[in-house]
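Here we describe the complex-level prediction in full. Unlike the single-chain runs in Section 2.1, the two entities below were treated as one system.
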Amino acid sequence: METLQAIMHALPEVLAWQNFLAMVIGTLAGMTVGSLPGLTATMAIAVLIPLTFSMSPLVALGIMAGIYNGAMYGGAVPAILLNVPGTPPSIVTTFDGHPLAKQGRAALALKVACWSSAIGGAFSALSLMALAPPLVKVTLLFGPAEYFWLGILGMSSIAILLGADPIKGLIAAALGLLLGTVGSDVVTGEQRFTFGRLELIDGINLLVILTGLYAIPPAIRMLEQVFRPDAAKIEIKGHPDDSFAKNFRYLLPTWLRSSVIGIGVGILPATGGSMAAFLAYNEVRRSAKDPDGFGKGDIRGVAAAETGNNADNSAAMIPALVLGVPGSGVSAVILAGLLVHGLQPGPQLFRDTPDIVYGFMWQMLFTSFMLFALGGNIASRLFAQVMRLPQVILAPMIMCLTLVGIYALSNDMFNVWIMFAMGIVGYGLNRMDFPLAPIVLGLVLGNMIEQNLRLTLLIHQGDVTALIASPLSKLLFGLCLVLCCVPLYRRVKTRLKPA
Amino acid sequence: MKHHAISYLTALGLAAFGATTAAAQNYPEHSVDVIVAFNPGGGTDVAARTIEPYIEKYLGEDLVILNKPGAGGEVGFSLLAASDPDGYTMGFINLPAMYSYSYERETAYSPDSFTGVANLVYDPGVIVVRADSEFQTLQDLVDYGLENPGALPIGTSGSVGSSEHIAILGVEAATGAKYNHVPFGATAPLRTALLGGHVQVAAFNLSEADEYVEDGSMRLLGVMSEERSDMAPETPTFREQGVDVISGTSRGLAVPKGTDPAIVAKLSEAVEKAINDPEYIAKAEAAGVPVHYIGGADYDTFLSNVSTSLDAAWAATPWSK
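The structure predicted for the assembly as a whole is:
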């Protein structure tokens, strides 16, 4: 009851006009960014955070929530119209979305994507409200040993992320771990990789690296391909059968199923929207009575993909807000944004600033509904136009915004140079098909793992068995083992099949 | 000739005096920069932005807050030390952190690089245990440390060389007990670990423990201030319990050395008025900020006390290589 009261208490402030406006702007910006192939929600939020220093935390979070939900839907627009995913998770949307568009049903596909995103997002926000507060109560069970395993668990999930080229993924993760070691060592005061620079003693700011990795490479790539296919080839024509009421019953099972999958994937650390969309799509196809139409233009395919990737959004914030372990790249950036506003994740966040934490949950919910209102037929046409924005203009704009934002972080150029260096590294890695997500995970989780391992050993005077002393750490250790073995099991299984 | 030289010097002196007082009289003629050596949104930044309008009100000029974070504040402190002593650059200084860096590494400033304007916040260190702990008093803790040297982990909210770490070294030096120092790096994880029973004893600041002591989840073993704190009037100080350790973190305003004393006086006066503004008092109370004004010569004494006690602590047990 107490929690419910706290949640309701946060509501009036969220509805204040500044915050409402922030959510609308964020959602529109998110849809715009999402509909531009190559620009992701992570990038948009990373560019934006430094510009929100002077805003009140709720306004800043409102914009972030809007971008997050908006971008996840926006990605569907080029996925359907051009067969080009606007954001990584919308790859799955292309499977059925583009065939639909070719059959002249683009308007329907866009609408289904919009409804599904809104519904997935709303369910996800409700799960955040329902699950985060009770989870906060069990955080006391998490001591240094448990946090150590939680970090390892996050790193193990990279094993699942790695996909086709595990070596590249591991190199990326190691790079993240390496970058995370820069700065002075908390336990001994020793300086590591600071090269005598005062600016490096606190370590490299997470935002600087994230912005460099996620915002600069797309801008460089845009400049590379100034010419792009014309977006207007596909006609967006409405049809009387396209209404929400007419499709509601048909799509409801898909929405429910995909929401549950998306939320589940979101809570796991380090997985993210792409996997949610894939799993939801596979599950809906598997359970369909007539799976043959999938891949040829079944609206349930679009619905599954879009519900799945938006259902991942708020759920990914659960471990981020409660334990400080981000569930995805976007939630890592939002976490960095919270820290900038002096909001440290964990139980004290819920205790000291309930209005902000619960306010953010409301914002995730409202911005999902806004997708209904803002992402309709007209808006879809508008965003189809956005895709024709000349990239020669867009790319320098992005660069300027990042420069201003990162400069504002500490009012000097040092971080700006590091950001550009990271941008070039990120571009190179991108070109060589290295995944970027493991870098971020290594960066965020590396410190957590090291610090908590050392704390555990310090407290127990070097006794290694202390690491698996409590039932919870045993459980987490077991989960890590399972996660590490899943890809191995899959590989063995596929090898045995042909034989 | 001699006479001439003296009158010349006197004239020069008078001219210089006249010039400085004129500058001081007209001060401030334009806005004053305030260096905050931490990120926007951090504790120091929020404190600075909370008091900013009130200092402006009594100084009659704008304050411009410049965030210069880096190296635990060292970047900003170094900038403050190197800026013009014309009264148009002030900075927030955090003690003992600002001084203790100078022992661990070479810094671009020393305690002599600054003139104190006024202290704003003083937050004494405390040792806390969970409410159900076997340790009832500081003496219990000392006894345990004497009987089982180095066995009891005490978590601190800082890293090596934090005020809490130095305070624990102080307790060890004063009593002969030995503890196992575990630096958590930040207060939030330490507090959670203490409440969850993952560490039995913790040292951090009173304002960070206050709320938890009130709701009965933690117990204070002692406060490291000279006199009992208004925040916890029931809790005896370390001194009362026979352990001569004074420690705490403080936040104040300073200007570079060489700033006209008349200007410093004007600034201190504005800060004193700001701190006593009923509107500010209400805000600070709501935020749980332990406001503690020390101005003028008293602040200089305070600063040199911090410095000498650090010297003594370093001489007894260097806390870092």
